[in-house]
Amino acid sequence: METVINTRTIKDKLIFEFENSKLFLFGSTQLRDNAMESFYKQGIPTRNHEEYKYIRMDLMLKGEFDFSTNKNCSDAQIEPLKFLKDAYVVVIENGVFVEGSSNVQNLPKGLTICSLVDAEKSNSPVFEKHYAQYADVKTDPFIALNTAMTKDGAFIHIAKNVIIEKPIHVIHISTTSVNTIIHPRNLIVIDENAQAKIIESFETVSATAKTVSNALTEIVVDKDAIVDHYKIQDEKELGYLVNTTQVIQQRQSVFSTHTYTLSGSLVRNNLTVVLDDEHIESHLNGLYLTAGNQVVDNHTVVDHRKPNCNSNELYKGIIEGKSTATFNGKIFVRKDAQKTNAFQSNKNILLSLAGTINTKPQLEIYADDVKCSHGSTTGKLDEAKIFYLRARGVGLVNAKKLLMHAFASEVVNTIKIKALREYVEEKISKTFE
User: Fold this and answer.
1) Is the distance from CB of 135 to CB of 187 less than 8 angstroms?
2) I need a labelling partner for 369 at 20 to 30 A (CA). Which of 29, 223, 310, 433 fits?
3) Phi, psi of 32 (to 5 degrees)
4) 3 state DSSP class of 401
């Protein structure tokens, strides 16, 4: 029998904290008030909510929480998380931009990196034009909650025709000794004909209590821009992550996003990519590894609004123990989006009879001249391949590891940054030990 949590009490606590924290929050008062009103109407989603039917968000928010965003992490603890040695590094600790721990000095011309607070204070026209314009507070309660209660985050802007050779690494760190909810937010704008590689990593460090991170990133990809975006999620046993990424693409842009979920007690990914002009290319790749009682919930939306665009989506999962994974991928092809090519695939390996995979690829097509496909497969490791390897002297455990590595490599090999690919491969190897 399922535990029943009083979601009204949770909602009321969050609203009470919002009223007590108004002086310390970020953004215009009207924007925040409207967002909290939207959250109040929607409430914490239950399993009666179609988009959250496989996950207990109320259990994640059960108990007493502290809403402070104190800095607890030393530079010595942060340093190992800077796994890209040649990168511009942004450190967001407990939802707040930490300039002293970041590497954002002596930036090249055309690259701006600062806190959201500083971007607002400077009256940046780019910030004012794009902030909170794409993630709609009416579509999801966690978008509304983040918009209402965020205190800070990163603002990244790449100017027109600028190519940033070095990766930009945004490190989200959660550190707490008491149950905490934080709401980090990022705005990333890549102007016309610019290029950038952006990595977001999510880490829980030295935590002795539950940390719930409700993170939101808006990405604007202007015409002819090329962007590679990576998310590395390693929140450990005490980390709970709701990660929303909202992307808007313009004419002839190319955007690739890669999500690697390596750990975390509960991880919910909401990814929406809007193709809002012609001749756009989008790539969505994901890999999730679940074990124990871990829960990973991936929801993606690819919204084709205009003709002559291409999208490709590949998500793979390896599920063991009593863990649960979900993939729900939607592709919309609007009436005007003729000549669309859209492909989606979800593949899973289930290593345990106690594990669960819920997979639901979806197509909604309102145009008649398109090429679209979707598919899903779930199975065990191939016994014939295991037998083949064992017949050649490979032990059973190593044979299984080799097959899992081979299965994951199709997604891992899409990483274009060598140091990042090696880091992810090392993390995956430790997972399979």
Assistant:
1) no
2) 223
3) -70, -40
4) helix
What's the pTM value of the predicted model, to 2 decimals? 0.95
- Residue 5 pLDDT greater than 70, yes or no: no
The owner of tokens 């009436």 is 335
Helix or strand (DSSP H, E) at 218: strand 211-221
Structure confidence by residue, pLDDT tens digits, 41-86: 999 998 888 899 999 888 888 877 877 777 677 788 888 889 998 9
User: In 3-state terms, the chain is what percent helix, strand and coil (to 5)?
Assistant: 25, 40, 35
Q: Find out whether 153 and 186 touch, Cβ atoms under 8 Å.
A: yes
Residue 187 C-beta-side C-alpha neighbours within 13 Å: 27
Buried b (16+ CB within 10 A) or exposed e, 384-420: eebeebeeeeeeeeebbbebbeebbeebbebbebeeb
The strand pairing partners of 344, in sequence order, are: 313, 374
- What per-residue confidence (pLDDT) applies to 1? 40
Phi, psi angle pair for 11, to nearest 5°: -60, -45
Q: What pLDDT was estimated at residue 207?
A: 67
Residue 81 carries which DSSP code?
Answer: G
Distance of alpha carbon 21 from alpha carbon 115, whole angstroms = 19
Q: Name residue, tokens 């080799």.
A: 402
At residue 427, φ and ψ (nearest 5 deg) are -60, -40
How far is it, in rounded angstroms, from Cα 242 to Cα 95? 13
The strand pairing partners of 288, in sequence order, are 261, 317
What is the tens place of the pLDDT at every residue in 330-360? 999 999 999 999 999 999 999 999 999 999 9
Is the alpha carbon torsion for 403, 359, 373, 256 positive or negative?
negative
Amino acid at 323: S
Tokens read off for 378:
């779930």
Instruction: Name beta bridge partners: 292.
Output: none
Each residue's pLDDT tens digit, 392-402: 899 988 898 89
Say if residue 132's pLDDT is above 70: yes
Rg (CA), the chain: 21
* Placement of tokens 């037998």 in the chain: 387
Helix axes 141-149, 29-42, angle to 10 degrees: 150
Tell me if 135 sits within 8 A of 216, measured CB to CB: yes
